[in-house]
Specification:
This protein is of the alpha/beta class. The protein has 7 helices and 10 strands. The protein has helices at 9-25, 40-47, 75-84, 102-115, 151-157, 176-180, 195-203, and strands spanning 2-6, 30-33, 57-60, 62-64, 91-93, 120-123, 145-148, 170-173, 184-189, 221-226. The chain has a 7-stranded parallel sheet, sandwiched between helices. A 3-stranded antiparallel sheet has the order 4-8-7, covered by helices on one side. Helix 1 (9-25) packs across helix 2 (40-47). The longest helix has 17 residues, at 9-25. The radius of gyration is 16 Å and the shape is globular. It starts with a strand and ends in an 8-residue tail after the last strand. Bound molecules: 2-amino-2-deoxy-6-O-phosphono-alpha-D-glucopyranose (GLP). Residues 34-38, 61-62, 124-126, 132-133, 153 line the site of 2-amino-2-deoxy-6-O-phosphono-alpha-D-glucopyranose (GLP).
Amino acid sequence: MKVHIVKNQVEGAAIAFDILKQKLAAGAQVLGLATGSSPIEFYKQIRESDLDFSEVTSVNLDEYVGLGEDSDQSYVYFMKEHLFNAKPFKENYLPNGLAADLDAELERYNAILENHPVDFQILGIGRNGHIGFNEPGASFDGIARVVDLAPSTIEANARFFENPEDVPKQAISMGIANILSAKTIVLMAYGQEKADAIKATVEGPVTEQVPASVLQNHEDVVLIIDESAASKLA
Ligand code: GLP
C-alpha cells in the first residue's frame, strides 16, 4: 500500500487526478466510482479538466435501497451533480435503488460488473472501516448484494436527512471481491473521524472486522489521507 499524506482535499484530489490521467492514457476503459464527501474535490478537478470520458464506462460502488434520482440523497443524483452532467461517459452504471425486484437487480448488476472489469477504482472509507457499504463482518469473497447498514453508518448518514426515519437502512453494494478485482485502487480519507479506520486499515491485521484491511492484500493500492486521518499511524 502506498500512503500519501496531504495537507487538504485539494492536494489529495490532485494526486488522485494525476493517477487517473495516467491510467486513462495507458488505456483504462472502466472506472469504479464512489460517492461521499471524500471524492468531491476529485470530481471537481475532473469537471474542470479537459479529460474526455466519451469512450469510458463507469460502475458505481453502491446505492441506497428506496432512493432514486429524484432524491437528492441518492447516489445516482450525487454522481450526476458532481460528474456525469458535466462529463458525458460512454455508459454509467449504478445499482437501481428503486428496483421492485431486488434479486433481479442484483443479477443485473453482478452481470454488469462481470462484463466491465474495473481499471481504476475510487474509494472512501467509513468510520468503521467499511468500503462501499461492506460493513464489518462482510465476507471478503462477497459480490454485489443487498446489505443492512450498520447503526453507526445510519447515524453518520443522518446529518443528510431531515427526518431520522428517512435515513435508509439498506443499500445495494458491490462486494469486497468486486472491489479487489480492480486493477488500481485509490482510497481517499480526510479528517480525525477516519483516524482509527485508517490505522486499522494500514497497520492492523487483515480481518473481515475491518473491511478496508483487505486492501493490504491488493498489489496496487494508493491511500491519500490528510494529517488528521493519518494521526494515529505509527
Ligand atoms: C458512505 C459510502 C462510502 C463512503 C463513506 C464515507 O458510507 N457508501 O462509499 O466511502 O460513506 O463517506 P465520506 O467520504 O463522506 O466520509
